[in-house]
Amino acid sequence: MLDIANHLKAIHREVRRGTTTGGETVTVLVRRRYDATAEDVWDAVTDPARVRRWFLPLTGDLREGGSFQLEGNAGGDILTCDPPRLLKVTFGGPTSVVQVRLAGDGDSTELELEHTVPIEIAQSGAGALFVGPGWDSALMALAQYFAGEIAEDPVAAANSREVQEFCAGSVTEWSTVVEDSGTATAEEIAGAAQISMAQFAPDLTGDTE
Question: Which family does the entry's similarity section mention (predicted)?
């Protein structure tokens, strides 16, 4: 059985609006600690043979200056690759940027993922609801992998009712985070939450009507 409550609590979430030379942005940040060395966590999130065991099949020219593709999901360019500390890539488009930072402390490592997009894409801080639950689900799947709870088919597992229940809880958590951040109106949050539920927990949408 998936311990949904503890997996939700294990993730730190933030959303903020900022300004760069390219204009206004919205940034989503998630953080979780793993009982593994930084080198092991780095390998688990960059080695295609391991990534496919907990997330998705990964292909590409996996080096700085190269590109990557996650099967059935986003691809992009590898901007920075500094093992085992920093990975920076475009994700689904040149203005959508994901950074993964690892901070190791012996056999424990904190993984921090930051996803930044222009305000034109996110519309408001409520845009966090379009990606936050997905990143939450990925961090949970990585924790299961390190705990030896490896799904035979990670894609099928990610679409299971149990994981959808986790995602529904994640939508609630992100709604609260966005509200507390003051980066979106109540109407924007409600609308984004409805879309997010349909995306990440489609089998449960009828349960909340």
Answer: Belongs to the AHA1 family.
Range of the domain at 27: 4-204
Amino acid type, 205: T
Amino acid at residue number 27 = T
Q: Quote the CA–CA distance of 75 and 29 in Å, as a whole number.
A: 19
Paired tokens of 36: 């593994």
Q: Please, what's the b/e burial string for 133-155 (b: 16 or more CB within 10 A of its CB; e: otherwise)?
A: bbbbbbbbbbbbbbeeeebeebe
CATH of the domain at 58: 3.30.530.20
| Number of structural domains in the chain | 1
Q: Helices 38-46 and 128-146: crossing angle, nearest 10°?
A: 120
* Residue 85: inside a domain: yes
Predicted confidence (pLDDT) per residue in 104-157, tens digit? 999 999 999 999 999 999 999 999 999 999 999 999 999 999 999 988 999 999
Whether residue 153 is contained in a domain is answered as yes
pTM (global) more than 0.90: yes
Backbone angle region of 60, left / alpha / beta, with phi > 0 → left and psi within -120 to 50 → alpha: left
